[in-house]
Amino acid sequence: MNPQAEELNQVIREVSPAVYEMLSGRGKDIFFPKKGILGQTAEAKGTRINATIGSAIEDDGSPMRLDVIASRIHLDPSLVFPYAPSFGRPDLRSKWKSMIYAKNPSLGHTEVSLPVVTNALTHGISIAAYLFADPGDEVLVPNLFWGNYNLTFSNGFGANLIKFNLFKNERFDLEAFESKLNEGKIGKKLLILNFPNNPTGYTPTQTEADAIVSIIRNSADRGNKIVCIVDDAYFGLVYEEGIAKESIFAQLAGIHKNVLAVKLDGATKEDYVWGFRIGFITFGVQGGTPELYSALESKTAGAIRGNISNVANLTQSLLYTAYASDEYDHQKKAKFAIMKQRYEAVKKALNEKKYQKYFSPLPFNSGYFMCVQLAGGINSEIVRQVLIQKYSIGTISLDNILRLAFSSVAASDMNALFEGIYKACEECA
Questions:
Q1: Of 78, 208, 409, 421, which residue is the least packed, with the fewest Cβ within 10 Å?
Q2: Along the chain (429 residues), what's the average pLDDT of each consecutive run of 10 residues?
Q3: Does 48 map to a domain?
Q4: Residues 270, 213: one domain?
């Protein structure tokens, strides 16, 4: 093992033996190379003649660039063309951390790590798997989940997804969740919680969220070491009262010494910048110290360094500039209002009683999506094909469920969407 990795491991073991046990073999071995080329480059920063940087510099000291590109970007070239750190831009990391506390006031004085910038959520999932999942490990997910979990944890790292039933009586199935979490021997457990859920668009009520946290705490009391990966891709898009408004990360971050909360979030859906590919990974554990978090951040940055090197400087700079703007909050509220209007149009359209003959909605209250369960005997894939070919309507087929992204449908088109589904089901029944 590299001595720099062992130094980080020693810090983690001293502060939190439980967190050390949660790390995968790769997670234990990884480190951010502060010595060697990167260390020598850092030491040379500010020198008059700097021949360490692996990028081209103009004679005036500014980044070398093509005007056909630079003329289209209204930012200082130093914020665009140089490499960003593998950890992410320091100003953006600090800003996102302050935004996490602002969005989740119940965090209070619970100390969490400084977010590390990832190449959006998919990359964040991959980094979490790198750090915590060994081949053969079991990862607990709901039976309705984002397909990238399979590609990353199963295909990429050899872990096994273990599913629990998501809904019972139109609510989160707490009994199924508790049973699966405590199944098997005491030891390391990996868990993914994704709210608002993709594909269903469901976020637990605050009462349900409290119960989920209680179940995790009780499991940790039994001796389980739980890595709780919180996928907050659609954070903030909650449209009903009584639904948990804060991330469940806020309740998990300091809940128990045996629970490491790993928050994966980003600007992709929250700020409607899908192509920017900017996400964050943040850690929280009871008794977490700056030294522990610094070690975890270094391991994370090491995994990023060895995978994609760093995330684009341009999009990080654009986001930081946006967050500093007085117009940001106002514009974000305006887009949320449009999303809520579309959600309400879905709810209104589903009041049509005749639809119940062929399909019924799964519980939904937030996010980008909702799902309809087709009646028995109706094949969702055939319905999907009919919708495309005859009604010019696109949907996603998932095991006799149709997933509908109401986020991409104008409120005025919502009735036509469900009427088309009804007619296609009628033809296929």
A1: 78
A2: 95 97 98 82 79 84 92 94 95 98 96 98 97 97 96 97 97 97 96 98 97 98 98 97 96 97 97 97 97 98 96 97 97 97 98 96 97 94 97 95 97 97 94
A3: no
A4: yes
